[in-house]
């Protein structure tokens, strides 16, 4: 005769009947809830440990398989370089890289506007449409045309608001729209006349967004500033400085200009002298065009005024 053990299940309230042999001893195993109720943790069997180890090994192997070895990483192609409009600058940097952010920084009278106009002139001569986002409404169209900029190919965005904060807000919004629309060979952000403390309010996440937006496009993104503010987001960083100023004295009659001697030039008042030439220095601070680290290098170039011939 056989005996039966009845266990009520909490799931459906239905009994499960286990039929045992006549002489077999019925020893039901306690459940995990019962063990915890008694204060004893459930014992893990060797099969459970083996299964956990195997599952961990499979998961770890799957994660490692998804990691690309360094030897198989694709080498990012070197971006196309275009002329900056100044031969000495092209010799120093190789030009301006497409699809990258370039920073030109320096104090007042260091050649920022000269380089800005030269880059715009070179781009418009190549038949490209360009944009100048002017944060301080500082562009002189006559000077731009004299420098060789084809104004028919230039979009001038003027952000001349009453406060630097409002101008900066407009500049960032316009830049986002321009990068999304595409179709421009050169986009220049002129921040040179903004106070450094205002320009530094641009978060690095914004510069990173600009860099990713211009990446894989033929657009040159050029930021002109007093100090570098984009950090590691810029692929090229050039620092400008003033080396020498060429002056000319005005004659008392007829406003004719003549070259003064060094002694008289120092003694002449400012209103009796006419600026004729600037000699600037350019230092290559950062360049991600090459794999090797860049050593600091400097050049000197000059800019002459229109009335000096």
Compose a concise summary of this entry.
By secondary structure, the chain is α/β, with parallel strands linked by helices.
Secondary structure layout:
Blueprint: E1 3-8, E2 15-20, H1 32-37, H2 46-65, E3 81-82, H3 87-93, E4 96-97, E5 100-105, H4 112-125, E6 130-134, H5 141-146, E7 154-158, H6 164-181, E8 186-190, H7 196-199, H8 204-214, E9 220-225, E10 236-250, E11 257-258, H9 262-267, E12 273-287, E13 297-304
Parallel strand pairs: 5-9, 5-10, 6-7, 6-8, 8-9
Antiparallel strand pairs: 1-2, 3-4, 10-11, 10-12, 12-13
Task: Describe the protein in words.
The chain has about 300 residues and is of the alpha/beta class. The protein contains nine helices and 13 strands. The strands form three sheets. Strands 5, 6, 7, 8, 9, 10, 11, 12 and 13 form a nine-stranded mixed sheet that branches. Helix 6 packs parallel to helix 8. The N terminus is likely disordered.
Name the helicity range: 25-40%
CATH architecture verdict of one domain: 3-Layer(aba) Sandwich
Low-confidence stretches: 1-12, 260-265
Mean pLDDT, rounded to whole units? 78
Count of helical stretches: 9
Largest sheet: 9 strands, mixed
- Name the beta content range: 25-35%
| CATH superfamily caption of one domain | P-loop containing nucleotide triphosphate hydrolases
Q: What is the approximate shape? A: elongated
Distance between the termini: 125 Å
> How many strands appear in the DSSP assignment?
13
Radius of gyration: 36 Å
Order of helices and strands: EEHHEHEEHEHEHEHHEEEHEE
Structural class: alpha/beta
Q: Under the CATH scheme, which class of one domain?
A: Alpha Beta
Provide the CATH topology of one domain.
Answer: Rossmann fold
Oligomer: single chain
